[in-house]
Amino acid sequence: MTVYAYPRLSKTDLWFTRIGGDGLGNLLFNWARCLSVSRQQGWGMVWPTWKSHKPKNRRVNPYDHRLYDDLFRPTDAYVHGIRKPLVLATRRWVSEAEAARNPPSGRALVQFRGMAGKFEPFLKDRERVRNELLAMTREEHLAGYRESDPAPIRIHVRRGDFQRIEGNPGILAKDNTALPIEWYMQVLEAVRRHTGHAHRAEVISDGTEAELAALLSMPGVERVEHGSSIADMLALSRARLLVASGSTFSMWASFLHQAPTVWYPGKLQQRLHSRDDTEFEWSPGAALPTWLDRAWLEQTCAQENGSESQRF
After folding, report:
1. Which residue, 111, 146, 119, 163, is CA-closest to 271?
2. CA-to-CA distance for 78 and 302, rounded, in angstroms?
3. Strands 18-19 and 12-13
4. pTM of the entire structure?
5. What is the pLDDT of residues 266-292, one digit of tens each?
6. Do 203 and 114 touch, CB atoms closer than 8 A?
7. Which one of 138, 142, 215, 264 counts the least CB within 10 Å of its CB?
8. All domains of the chain in start order, with CATH
9. How far apart are CA 225 and CA 179, in angstroms?
10. How far apart are CA 64 and CA 206, in angstroms?
């Protein structure tokens, strides 16, 4: 009898909707870890409950209520629909840790929780994770990802519910802190000076126009919106050069296609690339990698055909 696995995305999971829970970047760790282990073990996988109600977000994040009810649709690889509650109600639930100690059998259902290890558990399973994410993302959220000529530079500025803390020690002391807008501007200026060309740059952000004003006032910089969190993440992943925010959202954009990524000093949490020099922390005045030149930045991203879109 098939063993099933279930990525439980919130403590209060009613199987058709959830109460509370993390943002999309954090939720994807649970889903991807469950996917990788399930496929390796030959387990069936139950479709996670993406839809969520977060009363707090209506006050803290008026720009994004994070309902996540229209981002994905189940593929045939998942137990979903009327079968989902039937499987969840009739199986013997075991924890992910217990399943790792004692391989489950029979009518077991392995429950995955949280974001332990972040990318580490599925770092070598990136192609499977990426392909499955694309397969389950609704078509309307893929337009930015499929652009034939994305901007050479894409900048992710995380604001929203991130804390505004002055000074480098405070920014590094906590994960969810907003980076200085001046740093983003300095990165862009340095890349343009290094390559000898004012490359076009797009800003993807949950910040206000006032918060982004200085960056958006730079020549050749524009703000773009793709309509949803997953659409923005996938669009960022197609960047020739990604200037990251330090969030797990930026980490996912960097991981999915190994988009060369610039990180604020101290914010590169995990190595996600097969080449170390394509993900680096940068301080104003520091040198940039030798591979980063005008010709390289002006290359067109390859269309996604089941192979890598970033080549070196």
Report:
1. 119
2. 30
3. antiparallel
4. 0.89
5. 999 899 998 878 999 999 999 999 999
6. no
7. 138
8. 4-125 (no CATH), 153-297 (3.40.50)
9. 20
10. 8
